[in-house]
Amino acid sequence: MIQHLRAALLTLCFAIPAQAAEVTVFAAASLGDALDDAAMQWENETGHQVTIALAGSSTLARQIEAGAPADLYLSANEDWVSWLEDRGRLLADSRRNIASNRLVLVAYDPALGSDTEISEHTDIPALLGAEGRLAIALPDAVPAGIYAKDALSRLGLWDALDQRLAPTDNVRAALALVALGEAPLGVVYATDAEAEPRVHVAGVFPSDSHAPILYPGAVVADSAAPDVAMAFLDWLESDDAQAILQRHGFLPPEPVE
Questions:
Q1: How buried is residue 14: exposed, middle or buried, by Cβ count under 10 Å (0-12/13-18/19+)?
Q2: Is the dihedral of CA 158, 126, 171, 193 positive or negative?
Q3: How far apart are CA 73 and CA 133, in angstroms?
Q4: In terms of DSSP bridges, do strands 103-107 and 185-189 run parallel, antiparallel, or are they unpaired?
Q5: Nearest Cα residue to 71 out of 223, 179, 246, 192
Q6: What per-residue confidence (pLDDT) applies to 141?
Q7: What are the start and end residues of each CATH 3.40.190.10 domain in the chain?
Q8: Helix runs in the chain, H state only
Q9: CATH-assigned architecture of domain 103-204
Q10: Cα–Cα distance for residue pair 13/179, rounded to 1 Å
Q11: What is the DSSP string of 194-206?
Q12: What is residue 20's predicted lDDT score, i.e. its pLDDT?
């Protein structure tokens, strides 16, 4: 009788599905559309829920440092992940790259559309016109702005544009300025340009004009669901997740050195 009862209880335990968990992901704004699609597929496969908070990588890193309840951090810049690691705010050995990207110049005017590589001879001030400003994420804090300043500086174009910027809190805000015609040109990621039909690529920055644009992720040290957060991060490296990211224009990740 006791053996039968034990067998019945064991069967019941196996019949009860694992409790679904909710994972809060703090992610770089440029990951928004792709991450929404990826999270939806993972939710359908696992039954877990993903809540995504999008903003500039620097803003999110500071929020995590201040104790914001995040489980997973996905950045558009390696430095902010290292900044959190140095403060003990990320789970040891959880860091890995999930994607990479390119940098482009976008325009509101379709007549400026071009896939030409930007060089030291590209006259961006002339393309801006007499009053136009260049939309760019904050060049001293937000990854997209940091990459943009790096590229423009290496090409010898920064000094002519430094006083003609329209800085924004994140790259999607810079994209919106161009999409709405409030700025004639902007520097954004290639994936942002692909996601917004109202802007037109006006040039592509050479890959060697800036540091590699990588998207590292890591589990937050005081996550309420570290195992589930790690499972989602692992899944983002899978073929299925990479297909989603690449469908949105992201490039394959480079390994963490």
A1: exposed
A2: negative
A3: 32
A4: antiparallel
A5: 223
A6: 85
A7: 2-100+214-247, 103-204
A8: 2-15, 32-46, 57-65, 78-86, 124-128, 143-154, 158-161, 171-179, 190-195, 226-235, 239-247
A9: 3-Layer(aba) Sandwich (3.40)
A10: 54
A11: HH-TT-EEEEE--
A12: 81
**Closest residue by Cα to residue 188 from 102, 61, 84, 59:** 102
- Report yes or no: 49 and 40 within 8 Å, Cβ to Cβ: no
Cβ-based neighbour number of residue 133 at 10 Å: 19
Of 33, 32, 23, 147, residue with least CA distance to 80: 147
For the chain (257 residues), the mean pLDDT of every run of 10, in chain order, is 44 48 94 95 96 93 97 94 97 95 97 95 95 96 92 97 95 96 97 94 96 96 96 97 95 75
Closest CA to 135 of 185, 85, 62: 185
Looking at residue 56, its pLDDT comes to 86
Question: Considering only CA atoms, which of 155, 199, 160 is closest in space to residue 181?
Answer: 199
Per-residue pLDDT of 96-121, as tens digits, reads: 999 999 999 999 999 999 999 999 99
Q: How many residues does the chain have?
A: 257
Multiple choice CATH, 2-100+214-247, 3.90.550.10, 1.10.20.10, 3.40.190.10, 3.20.14.10: 3.40.190.10
Angle at the Cα of 105 from the Cα atoms of 103 and 110, rounded to 5 degrees: 140
Tokens read off for 173: 């805000």
